Amino acid sequence: MKEMLPEVKLLPYRYKRYGVWVLIIGIPVMALLSMALLSVGLITDRQSFFAEWSYLMVYYPIIIGLALLNFSKEKDEDEMVQHLRYQAFMNGVYYLIVGILMLPFFYNVFRLLRGASIGMPDIGGMLGALALLLFYTYLSFRYKLHQTRKSLAADAE
Q: What one-character DSSP code corresponds to residue 77?
C-alpha cells in the first residue's frame, strides 16, 4: 500500500518551534510594521490601507504558523502518525466543505428571523477558510495522536 501513495516530504521537527513563534509574535510584528510605515509617512491614507491590508496582516502569520505546525515531522514519525495526519486532513476538508455549503442556509434563516431580506454571507474569503482548515487539521491530528498513544500505553500494561 505504501507504494500506491505519493511520498509527502515533511519539514524537519524543528520547524514546529518556528510555527509556534510565528503564531505568537506574527500579528504583533505585523502591527508594529504597519505603525512604523504610518509614522514614517509611507502610508498616506490610513483608512484605505487598513481596509485592504488588514486581512493579510492577520491571516498571513496565522496561516504560516499553522502550516509550519501541520507540515513538520513528529519526533517519532511512523506509519501510525502518517495515517493520523491523513485522517485529520481529510476530516478537516470534509467539515470545511460542509460548513461552507451550510453557511448560506443558516445565515439566511437567521436573517429571515430578524425580518431582513436574504443575501449571501461573507465567509472570510479563501484566507479564512485556509486558516480554519489548517487549525482544525493540526488540533485533530494532535488529539488523535494523543488518544492513540494513550490507548497503546494502556494496552502495553
A: -
Residues 139 and 80 in one domain: yes
Q: Tell me the mean pLDDT in the region 108-134.
A: 78
Distances (CA, A) of 24 to 8, 16, 72, 127: 27, 12, 17, 19
Query: What is the identity of the amino acid at 150?
Result: K
Let me know how long the chain is. Answer: 157
pTM of the model: 0.67
Pair (49, 111) in one structural domain: no
C-beta of residue 127 within 8 angstroms of C-beta of residue 63:
yes
∠ at Cα 67 (61, 69), nearest 5°? 105
Q: Which residues pair with 11 in a beta bridge?
A: 72
Both 96 and 44 in one domain: the answer is no
Lookup result for grid cell 505585523: 30
